[in-house]
Amino acid sequence: MNVYRIVSLICFIPLIVVTGIALADVGLIGIFRLLLDSSAGWQVFVDLASALILTLMFLRDDARRRNIRFWPWVLATLMTGSIAPLLYLIIYGYQSKNE
User: Membrane-crossing residues (predicted)?
Assistant: First the structure.
């Protein structure tokens, strides 16, 4: 198990727990409503979107090297945020250009 898988798993577990709690507390619409009600929320939203776009760029290259279909991971990321890229890394790890 490479370091990418280990770190991803360490991040994945608390994220799933916190996401479940938030969904149970305010629901999916409530999460977005709380996020977009203030300029601070918009900043967090734009920051998260930027980070996910950068992450998907790396995953695209990795998926091409492995000959894995990339678009399902894009759709999953749009639906789940950083849960999908973390799951990708848990399943596949990360393969550098030299490997």
Answer: 7-34, 40-59, 71-94
